[in-house]
Amino acid sequence: MIANQVATKRWRLRPEPEATPEGDWPSLIGRLLALRGVRSSSDARAFLDVDAPASPVALPDLDRAVSLLAQACRAGETVAVFGDFDVDGVTATALLTEGLESLGARPVPYLPHRVDEGYGLSTKAIETLLGLGATLLVTVDCGTSSLKEVAFARGQGMDVVVLDHHTVPPQLPGANAIVNPKRDPNSTNEPSACGIVYQVLLALHETLGRPADEARMLELVALATVCDLAPMLGENRRLVRRGLRALAQTQRPGLRALLAVAGSGRGPVDTETIGFGLGPRLNAAGRLGHARLAFDLLVCEEEERAQELAAELDALNRERRRATDAALALAGELVVEEEGAPLIMLGHPEFPLGIVGLVAARLAEQYHRPAIIYQRGEKTSRASARSIEGFDVTAALRTCPELFVRFGGHRAAAGFTAENEQLPAIKERLLAHAHEQLDGRELTPAIDIDAELPLSALRSEEIRWLARLAPYGVGNPDPVFLSRGVVVTERRQLGKNGDHLRLKLRDGAVVWPAIAFRQRGEGIEQGARADLVYTLSVDKFRGGGLELRVLDLRPAD
């Protein structure tokens, strides 16, 4: 039964790599590099080189898009910039708006309302932008699947440029240029939409013979890349490293104010700062209000106004947390009906539209299976889907396109709108596809462990080298370690309901502080020995020192 599968996680120790790169690094670092696909010493040195220069990126239709944008800048045209309401869409919209304005165009940013308009381009929005005098329409983080909408815009005399990274449908819209790396089936480049805008602006500045403020641009690229879960490999990783350095010294009043309300000024600015501090607050605008609030914060130039906007976002984020907790409690009551299913699909009128994706992500994590959560409306429902490794959720939706009003997304995350009468058929088709794709797989939560080692083996040398493997993310996850038989010298419950654990753990003479979120530590008593799986993290709330982030623990085996 699904409800019981949350209780126990499988611990999977990754197999010993066939070969590890040789160098002046500790053997543990060589193992971690090999497990991330870095085999040769030269590749390892390139991976560890934190100051490696960025490489030019080949993108389809880049020259055509830059030509149209350069013409618009030279002529001072009104350019509509249509984005999405998540962090990637908002940062991409802000970045392109700032860039075009500095180069002579007159940009008009447009972010749709999640509830009133939904995701993606619409004819109503195009009509609004036409009324504002826009002659060129640029979509960012959307547009690849907007056949009817792009045709309407072209029919009204607008040129259209699509800057997107979503899955490419069988038929592309008739835009003047579609800059989407997924158009090239051989491409391994998977930037965020904001990362694509960055590359376009670099080329545009070069075409117009104007210098680009790369640091200011890379702050937003780092935000988008982390929050949109783009692979933290190759060019993405280099851009995020540079972006994090820029973010730590940002001159944007809005980002400084957001860092302050997030409590992120007490430690280094890293991917965790973005993923748990900045990203949720920026996303809260589009989830419970209007994404324009987040956009206004990013482009704000006045300190006092920035502080007001940051406070509004912080309040929205607190409201988002309360709504998420309530929705998860409701989902917990409904999920028992999904017993034995390889895919979870739940809907209810009381699921707030802005957080269905968060609920889907939590269920996919807890039950280790694809999860689809939808807000049931009077006649139509809107859903968000989150997936697991090895299951392409957008491909699953493509098995029954005729059942949706609209749909789209990535391998790991997608969404759709459907008539309520179609929901039973959608569920039946998706369950059949999931049965086929996941047959024979053990659908219980699992933790993949990079190395088993005594806690005392984490010495200063290894820790210094671990810092050079960062930034971490998809494709380059935080190293996960297993240590057995550590002594629990202190143990206390934290949180409103005692849902978290604060620990001190000893191995010989070595003592580490530790935090275990969403864990009660049943069977773990003070003075006893425990086996634990963990990563290393910076404790930004108690002095910025290192601590163990415990992923799971059990009484010593």
Strand content: 15-25%
Q: What is Rg?
A: 24 Å
Biggest beta sheet attributes: 5 strands, parallel
Instruction: Give the helix tally.
Output: 17
Low-confidence stretches: 1-7
Number of domains: 4
Overall 3D form: globular
| Rounded mean pLDDT score | 92
Query: Using DSSP, what is the number of strands?
Result: 18
Q: Record the strand order, biggest sheet.
A: 3-2-4-5-6
Give the SSE layout:
Elements: E1 10-13, H1 27-35, H2 41-48, H3 62-75, E2 78-82, H4 87-102, E3 106-110, H5 123-131, E4 136-140, H6 147-155, E5 159-163, E6 177-179, H7 193-208, H8 214-227, H9 234-248, H10 253-261, H11 271-288, H12 292-299, H13 303-334, E7 344-348, H14 356-367, E8 371-376, E9 380-386, H15 393-397, E10 406-409, E11 413-419, H16 423-438, E12 446-449, E13 451-452, H17 460-469, E14 481-494, E15 500-507, E16 510-516, E17 529-538, E18 546-555
Parallel strand pairs: 1-12, 2-3, 2-4, 4-5, 5-6, 7-8, 13-14, 16-18
Antiparallel strand pairs: 8-9, 9-11, 10-11, 14-15, 14-17, 15-16, 17-18
